[in-house]
Structure formats: structure tokens, C-alpha cells
Amino acid sequence: MKLGWPHLLAIVVAAILLLGAGYVLATMRGGMEPAAIEIEPPPTIVPTPPTTVATAAPTATSGPWRVYVSGAVAHPAVYELPPGSIIDDAVRAAGGFTAEADAAAVNLAQPAADGMQVHVPALGQAEATPPPVSLPPSAASAPTAPSRMGGVTIAGLININIADQTDLEMLPGIGPSTAANIIAHREANGPFATIEAIMDVPGIGEGKFEAIRDLITVGP
């Protein structure tokens, strides 16, 4: 059976409509697809180091010196003196010299030290035992052979061959001028061969030598 042109026209229109509908559906489906979402990484957090606060170290404070004053003083005992004290301060703390004290045997201007003994001999005393000024004892671990600390040995003796002005003035009756004479004599004539040779120094006679003979040495 032959189709008339009206039927053919209807078929063509229907085909065009179907194609158009298919195109529209395809377009709509493409537009409904979800868009890609870009996820940014979280920011990097750099930790801040803790702030260090500097604190000052505690300052060590020195305590009082303990000095034993014995012999011909009013009140022999151990006294506490402020650092930097001299022998005169120790004698005054003990009430001063007694009437029998040989004040000339003690150098009142000598610096004191923690642990020192100051012994004031009596007039006419043959020898000072202990010496007028005794240095603090050495530690138990110290070597038995005497070792030098400047011009002073561990045994507490002044080596007159190496002692400086300060060391020599530690001796009773030896002031700045006499100490300078000892050093000048030593430099001009060489080391003292014996402790008795110190009497060749101007200003040191037998009396002054007897006061210091047990406190000096010429050896190491």
C-alpha cells in the first residue's frame, strides 16, 4: 500500500521530534553531572619554640671568719670577724693585750684569715709556741712534703729566699721598710744560706731574729 504525502510528512515530523527530544535529554543529563570540587590542603602550622628566660645565678656570700686568739689577751677564745679583718681586729675582739703581753711580737697590721690562730706571747717568753700567727692547717689530703704557696710553706714558715713584701710583713716586728731591706739584700747578695744570715740585713738584730727564727726557713 502506498502512503500518501501527508503520511510521509507526519513520519518525518515525528522523526525530527524524536531526534530533538533525544538531544534535549542528552543535554540535560550532561548538565546534571556534579562539578568537580577542589579540596585545598590545610595550611601548615609551624610550631613556635618556647621563649627561654635567662635567670641570674645566685651570688655566693662569704660568711664570717673564725679566728682563735690565745695567749696574753683578756679573753682567749674563737671569735667571728668580718672578711678583710686584720690581726688588730682579732686582738681587740679578745679584749686587748694583758699587762704581761709582748705586744711587739705581734704584727697587728697583718691581714687575718679564716681558721687562723693568733697567739700573743708573754714578756720574757723564750719562744712563742704556737708562733704569734699560725696559718690555717692544710687539708688532710695535702702531701707530707712542704709545698710553697708564694713565700709561705704548708708548714706555716716564711721562706725568706722567695717571700715577697706581703709575706715578709706577716712576720712579727717586720714592717714595710724592713721587708724591703730583706728583698734588697737578697737581690744584691743572692739567697740566704741560713736563717741566721738574715741578721746581715739592716734593721734586724739578735732580738728581732729571736722573735722570727721559728717562723722562717731558707729551704723549699
TrEMBL record:
Residues making up the signal peptide according to the UniProt record: none
GO cellular component, one term: type II protein secretion system complex
Biased composition (Low complexity): 136-146
GO BP: DNA repair; protein secretion by the type II secretion system
SMART domains the record matches: HhH1
Region of interest called Disordered, as start-end residue ranges on this chain: 127-146
Residue ranges annotated for the Helix-hairpin-helix DNA-binding motif class domain, each copy included: 166-185, 196-215
Pfam families in the record: HHH_3 (PF12836), SLBB (PF10531)
Molecular function as annotated in GO: DNA binding
Source domain of life: Bacteria
NCBIfam families: competence protein ComEA helix-hairpin-helix repeat region (TIGR00426)
Name of the protein in its database record: ComEA protein
